[in-house]
Amino acid sequence: xxxxxxxxxxxxxxxxxxxxxxxxxxxxxxxxxxxxxxxxxxxxxxxxxxxxxxxxxxxxxxxxxxxxxxxxxxxxxxxxxxxxxxxxxxxxxxxxxxxxxxxxxxxxxxxxxxxxxxxxxxxxxxxxxxxxxxxxxxxxxxxxxxxxxxxxxxxxxxxxxxxxxxxxxxxxxxxxxxxxxxxxxxxxxxxxxxxxxxxxxxxxxxxxxxxxxxxxxxxxxxxxxxxxxxxxxxxxxxxxxxxxxxxxxxxxxxxxxxxxxxxxxxxxxxxxxxxxxxxxxxxxxxxxxxxxxxxxxxxxxxxxxxxxxxxxxxxxxxxxxxxxxxxxxxxxxxxxxxxxxxxxxxxxxxxxxxxxxxxxxxxxxxxxxxxxxxxxxxxxxxxxxxxxxxxxxxxxxxxxxxxxxxxxxxxxxxx
Length: 415
Ligand code: CTP
Fold this sequence. Notes:
Elements: E1 2-7, H1 13-25, E2 29-34, H2 36-41, H3 44-51, H4 65-72, H5 74-81, E3 84-90, H6 92-100, H7 106-113, E4 117-122, H8 126-130, H9 132-143, E5 147-148, E6 152-155, E7 161-165, H10 169-181, E8 193-198, E9 203-204, E10 210-211, H11 218-229, E11 233-238, E12 250-253, H12 257-267, E13 273-276, E14 283-284, E15 305-306, H13 310-316, E16 322-329, H14 333-343, E17 348-353, H15 360-365, E18 373-380, E19 385-392, H16 393-413
Parallel strand pairs: 1-2, 1-3, 3-4, 4-5, 8-11, 8-13, 11-12, 13-16, 16-17
Antiparallel strand pairs: 6-7, 9-10, 14-15, 17-18, 18-19
Helix pairs in contact: 1-3, 1-10, 5-7, 6-9, 11-16
This protein binds cytidine-5'-triphosphate (CTP).
């Protein structure tokens, strides 16, 4: 297997020579790309001697016109001929450039053109590593699925003690070996625009109180993360939840059922798949008071009006879109899921039992609203009933999209 080894300009660049050797010992063919700054720390000749191959340094480094053309597309060739791109040391500057897609030298252009597995081994001064800018960049890069070999702690060249030291070459080479055996995630949702709703809605009673439910939003957020990872453009319309925004998705925060309906309808035209994982309130109080209601001795009844059923409205105007609804049930789950599938004209309904949440303690081991795990049954327009065994919500999300894509093919074929 071929590895492109990108060497950044830091004191630790000398360790990249040991890394090249460690990679070759593990059976990789290594092709080195150095930044200009890296050349200040270590000579290309060292890598050429170790790898027995030409070392690439500049984006435009040719004498003749023909050579210029060849070198101008060198980054494309390096990107295509290598299955892994390993960057060590990955300096703060390189990480920032990768994050923002800046491409002003051979290594950064190679990164942008590269579609294989990326392994990053950062190394820098402790304060630079701990800086929110670097940490935010790392979050983005991890979100792209890159493997990060964490820097070690110790005495740094600058005299500071702390995290920032390049991981040991053997450790990086082992991580590269492990990454080379891991299958790349599928990108089968490439080209899809997916609208996902998640979380509860809150329906105001007065200026400070509201009606809501125990939905945590975890299932909808897991669906958004899975869809992004598989290549989709994702808009996540979310009721109030306590979850970080999924990287790579467009988050549209809403509060009430009416706001959620508006947000969904505004974005429907661009969607190819709609997943309604939100636990939308069925009733609300029209025109609630903005003031806090005062307590009186009398009994109090609230006059509730039904909210619009967003899923049913989507079913009526879905066209060719794939429409996936949810049915959170305490009883008769499969029958109820099938009834909702038909009544709301869905292609699939994900049924899950939520009885466990009646007891808060039980819900910690249970499935449903607040749990990290779920156990569902998928009922489909094609008449199937597919049980999905208990698994993490992310794994369940994966299965929902697997079955949805398969169902779309089956529905098209049967037309
Ligand atoms: N839903 C919706 N708009 C509503 C209520 C529900 O879009 N006002 C959607 C939910 O997002 C979910 C599906 O409808 O995808 C089923 O929600 P659920 O609360 O289980 O069902 P209801 O239609 O409210 O039926 P019931 O109260 O009879 O269980």
